[in-house]
Amino acid sequence: MESILKALFRGQLHPDEIIVPSHPEYRPLSRQIGAITEKWRKELSDELFLELEEYSDLCLSANSLHVEAAFIHGFKLGANMVIEVMSKREELVTHAASGVSL
Predict the structure, then answer these.
(1) pTM metric for this prediction
(2) Integer distance in angstroms from the first to the last C-alpha of the chain?
(3) Is 14 helix (H, G, I), strand (E, B) or coil?
(4) Among 23, 33, 44, 63, who pairs with 48 as Cys (CB 3.0-4.6 Å)?
């Protein structure tokens, strides 16, 4: 397996393209969205459906920006948790006087 750092440097990491939510409600919601979209495609004029698609694209773009911000925030939070734990690792050693260090 290639190093994560190498893959990141080479632009080979695209988690947003491979993540599929495992929540049990995801697929039924996705099917429901598809069914409603098809219903609107049949019922609306081409012009109105195009406007609906443009609106949907704007919503998806806004949601993508939110997901990106949440990812960055979560990553930073996780990294800060590791820093905090590692900076206080000597507190985890029950017998600090023994000279054993982690």
Answers:
(1) 0.68
(2) 28
(3) coil
(4) 44
85-to-68, 70, 82, 95 alpha-carbon distances in Å = 26, 22, 5, 18
pLDDT at 22: 93
44 Rama class: left (phi>0) / alpha (psi -120 to 50) / beta: beta
d(CA 102, CA 99): 10
CA separation for the pair 102, 93 (Å, rounded): 8
C-alpha to C-alpha distance for 16 and 64, rounded to whole angstroms: 9
User: Is the Cβ–Cβ distance between 93 and 101 less than 8 Å?
Assistant: yes
